[in-house]
Amino acid sequence: MKDHAHYATLREIILPYLPEDIDPSGIGPESLLIEELNINSAHLVDIVLDVEDRFDIRLEDTDMQQMHSVSDALRIIDTKLGNT
Amino acid sequence: MKQRVVVTGLGICAPNGIGISEFSEAMFRGRSGIRYMETLRQLGFRCPLGAAPEVPQDIMERYFSALERRGLTATGLIYGAMAGQEAWYDAGLDVAPPEEPDWDTGVLFGTGILGVDTFREAVMQVDAGNVRRLGSTTVPQTMGSGVSAWLAGKLGCGNWASANSSACSTGTEAILQASWHIRQGRALRMLVGSCSDSGPYIWGGFDAMRILSSLDPADPAAASRPMSARASGFVPGSGAGALLLESLESARSRGARIYAEILGGAVNNGGQRGGGSMTAANAEGVRRCIRGSLEDAGVDSGAIDLINGHLTATTRDPEEIRNWCQALGRSGRDFPLINSSKDVLGHGLAASGSMESVGTVLQLSQGVIYGNTNASDLHPEISRQIDPACVPVKSRNHQVNIAAKASFGFGDVNSCIIFSRHNT
């Protein structure tokens, strides 16, 4: 997953939302956004908007509900881009 | 037991100075924060003048993390969060650990309306059918309690966290409300203040009412003239002031520096009767408020050395002087020294009471009085009531022991605080 075409871009989007006490080097494909990376659940909404802007896609509420980990997000981006 | 309340921290984000040291120097030197604003002229404002803090990037970075700065467009929240944090650290307090807040410290931060620029963006998104694009920061930036919520979270305050609103009386009222909370023993410390957004959406309504300065915009520093014969209206301002209030006991036990004591105060409203209206004061309401503050403070009217008035630079300033004369029973040479801070700050609206209270506390603690930079041509109706020497034009060293700070506002609301110098 680390070699995934959009991994680096997604990581860049997520980084600013990490609380100050979370080490950015700890982000991996299987990291859970809320439980492990401690991202405020309200900020998940902002991450979704940033993803939409960067990839020019639209994520629905059902997509957001399935977005638990970094790799979940990559899968959803792929689906929206028609890469699956 | 009734607790005595003291001021142990100060913070400010003012049009003429960011931070206490810059602000106190600007106030003493009479440096104006009023500017000509081309955007106001282009929008067709009758008064193209305004006063807004100019916050440098490095100061933004000191007070807000990169994440907090994302999408941060609510100017009142920026000013309030800065002033509040400065007062907190000035008082020598630490941030609560992640596990538990400080249950004995609260935040009361008032505003008239918060985040109008943020709200405007939201309105445009909603009207375009894009409500889903608002993101998570619209609500925290536009709710009235936005500043108190932000500060309570950043600093870990577990006591009362709320916001008051009473137009241009907001800041002064907030300080009184918080001091009563401490006086009653409900908190040891209260971070208190008020803020007002800047810009055309806040100021437009006042421009439409034709109550803003009509003086030459080419000379912004001379356009706000409290107590002057040429006073023609106020210049709209913005910013935030903050004070850390604390019980005397708590301040002493942790060896905190004490700037001043709050002896007492009063709030009321004139009920829009007896000549009062939405925009004009019922004179009896103002006088009752002033007398009520003296009574609450246990201070004789003769003990007041300095008044920092509301004095907005409209044609109503002589009426305010008349109310002070009647409420205190003092006139002519017997009148206290009096100043307005709106000559250099403009009228900070909901922020005015807190910014001007910070200025009043600085005058008490530093042994100075600020001059009224634009009052050398004193209004004849004022010089008939009080000796012109009571209206200092130049700042000077002068030990003030007891000062009264009053604010009045739309809705016929009044508030008055009695501060005293603290002898340690």
Secondary-structure topology with pairs:
The complex is a heterodimer of chains A (84) and B (424).
Chain A: H1 7-14, H2 41-55, H3 61-65, H4 70-81
Chain B: E1 5-14, E2 17-18, H1 20-29, E3 34-36, H2 38-42, E4 49-51, H3 57-63, H4 66-69, H5 75-90, E5 105-111, H6 116-127, H7 138-142, H8 146-155, E6 161-162, H9 170-183, E7 189-196, H10 200-208, E8 239-247, H11 248-253, E9 260-269, H12 283-297, E10 306-308, H13 317-328, E11 337-339, H14 342-345, H15 352-366, E12 368-369, H16 380-383, E13 396-397, E14 402-409, E15 413-421
Parallel strand pairs in B: 5-6, 5-7, 10-11, 10-14
Antiparallel strand pairs in B: 1-2, 1-8, 1-9, 3-4, 7-8, 9-15, 12-13, 14-15
Helix pairs in contact in B: 5-8, 9-15, 12-13
List keywords for this structure.
heterodimer; A: 84 residues; mainly alpha; Non-ribosomal Peptide Synthetase Peptidyl Carrier Protein, Chain A; 4 helices; B: 424 residues; alpha/beta; Peroxisomal Thiolase, Chain A, domain 1; 11-stranded mixed sheet; two-stranded antiparallel sheet; 16 helices; 35% helix; globular
Outline of the structure:
The complex is a heterodimer of chains A (84) and B (424). Chain A is mainly α. Chain A has 4 helices and no strands.
Main β-sheet description of chain B: 11 strands, mixed
Distance between the termini of chain B: 22 Å
Q: In CATH's first tier, which class of chain A applies?
A: Mainly Alpha
Q: What percentage of residues of chain A falls in helices of 4 or more residues?
A: 40-55%
Strand share of the residues of chain B? 15-25%
- Morphology of chain B: globular
Number of domains of chain B: 2
What do the pLDDT scores of chain B average to?
97
Task: Say what the CATH topology of the largest domain in chain B is.
Answer: Peroxisomal Thiolase, Chain A, domain 1
Question: Total number of β-strand segments of chain B?
Answer: 15
Percent helix of chain B: 25-40%
Order of helices and strands of chain A: HHHH
Provide the low-confidence segments of chain B as ranges: none
Distance between the termini of chain A: 14 Å
If you consult CATH, what is the topology of chain A? Non-ribosomal Peptide Synthetase Peptidyl Carrier Protein, Chain A
* Tally of individual helices of chain A: 4
What is the CATH architecture term of chain A? Orthogonal Bundle
How many structural domains can be distinguished in the coordinates of chain A?
A: 1
